[in-house]
Structure formats: C-alpha cells, structure tokens
Design goal:
Layout lengths: L2 H29 L3 H33 L4 H34 L6 H34 L11 H11 L3 H30 L3 H24 L2 H31 L1
C-alpha cells in the first residue's frame, strides 16, 4: 500500500465534496440567494437519475447486442450516442420543467444568479456522489493492498490480477477524476444557464441546443474512454469545459443587460 495513493484518494474525496459546497456558499453570499435553490438543483438531479439510470440499464444491453453485428467499434459508437442522448434529454428537460413550473410556483425568480446556483447544486451533488464512490475505492485499496492483507482472498488468477492492478495505482491515476468533476460542474452550470435562457427569451431552440451539447459531451466521453484512453478523453472534456466557461460569461453579461433594460 502506497501512503501517497491513500492521501491522494483522501484529497480527491475532500475536494469533490468541498468545492461545490464552497462555490454554492460563495454564490449565496455574493448575491443574497437562498440555499433552497442549490438544494433544488441537487434534489432534481437525483430524481432525474432515479428514472434515467434504470431505463438505461434495461435498454443499453439490448441495444448493444442489436448493433453488434455491425462491428464492435460501430456498436460502441451507437451505444455512446444513445447514452449521450438519454442523458441530454432527461437532464435538460428535467431542468426545463423545474424552471418552468416549480420555480414559478415557489416564487423563485428566473434570474441568472439563481440559474448559476441551481446549476451548482445539480453538478455539485453529482460530484458528491462520485466522492462516495471514490471513498469506496479507497477502502478497497487499503484493505486489499495493505501489509498482511486485511481480507482473505481466493487463490484465483483473476482476483490476483485485480489486486495487482490496485497495487500498481499511482496518484496520477486518481487525479484525472477530480479534474473531470470540476469540468463537469462547469458544464452543468452552462447547461443550466442555457435552459434558463430558453425560458427567459422564449426560445425552445436553446433547450434543444443544451440537449445536443450534453449528448455530445457524454457520447464523446463514453466512446473515447473505451477507444483512446483516459488522457484523450479528459482532454476532449476539457475543451468542452472551456467552451462552457466562455458561454457562462457570455450569457451572464447578456442576461445582465436584459435585466437592466
């Protein structure tokens, strides 16, 4: 067991939880908002996934087997597009419905500030859920690679191969996950502002664009992770995140001008 790997696991877990909470705190204090908006973003991310995740699990295997005769790469591409579209449709339409009906019913203004906080809650709770998965991985690493072995293992080559893979972990294998969470939070904020703009400006095309943008990111991540490796995948996600950050600043100014008019 490498103590530096354990420390990296711990740092990643802490930051994946602390960063979205710190960002939410800053937005709440900066603009005098309510944590309720952050909580709605977190709550409805979970609600959407309760419907979305089981449907994907039920359908993706059948779809993959149906297109497998066209070749493994083609089947993977079709599956990646399908998973991306499902994520885009469920999450962006979910955001739209919350803005369109729940915000107005609860008297929450459709402002850029509330859109920013809502997106932080949406992407933030996903980061926190991933942190729990990382915690599980850290516990497995400690138990399976510690001196003497805390868990008795069967004399199985497959199991030994998994343990060897854990022992080969370095901090550089863990850190990309943290970077991905920070980029994903940025993307969720951008999509939240874009869907908000669809309502504020009365332009459904912006909702469609948010769905397609979300689908493109997820499809690219699924496909590239299987074909090009983690570094290429994170590089592409980084490009999407930079575009998202640029859009956030642009939309922030545009909504500010509209509010001042």
């Amino acid at each position: 067991m490498d103590p530096l790997v354990v420390a990296t696991f711990a740092a990643v877990i802490l930051l994946e939880i602390a960063v979205p909470l710190a960002l939410g705190y800053w937005i709440v204090k900066k603009f005098g908002l309510s944590w309720r908006v952050f909580g709605l973003g977190a709550l409805f991310f979970i609600i959407v996934q309760v419907v979305h995740a089981p449907l994907v699990l039920v359908t993706q295997t059948s779809l993959y087997l149906a297109v497998l005769p066209f070749g493994t790469t083609a089947a993977l591409a079709v599956l990646a597009v399908y998973l991306g579209l499902m994520a885009g449709l469920f999450e962006e339409i979910g955001r739209y419905l919350v803005y369109r009906y729940l915000f107005r019913r609860q008297g929450i203004a459709l402002t850029r500030e509330n859109g920013l906080l809502f997106g932080t809650g949406w992407g933030g709770v996903e980061s926190m859920i991933v942190a729990l998965l990382v915690l599980s991985s850290m516990v497995s690493y400690i138990l399976l690679t510690g001196d003497g072995g805390a868990i008795p293992l069967p004399d199985d080559p497959a199991v030994q191969a998994q343990v060897d893979a854990l022992r080969a972990l370095t901090p550089l294998d863990i850190l990309p996950g943290l970077a991905e969470r920070m980029m994903t939070i940025t993307l969720h904020i951008a999509w939240s502002l874009m869907v908000l703009a669809a309502i504020v400006y009365g332009r459904k095309a912006l909702l469609a664009l948010a769905i397609l943008w979300h689908a493109a990111v997820d499809a690219a991540a699924v496909y590239l992770a299987q074909t090009q490796g983690i570094l290429v995948t994170e590089g592409v996600v980084f490009i999407f995140a930079v575009l998202a950050l640029a859009y956030i600043f642009w939309e922030w100014r545009r909504m500010g001008v509209r509010a001042a008019a």
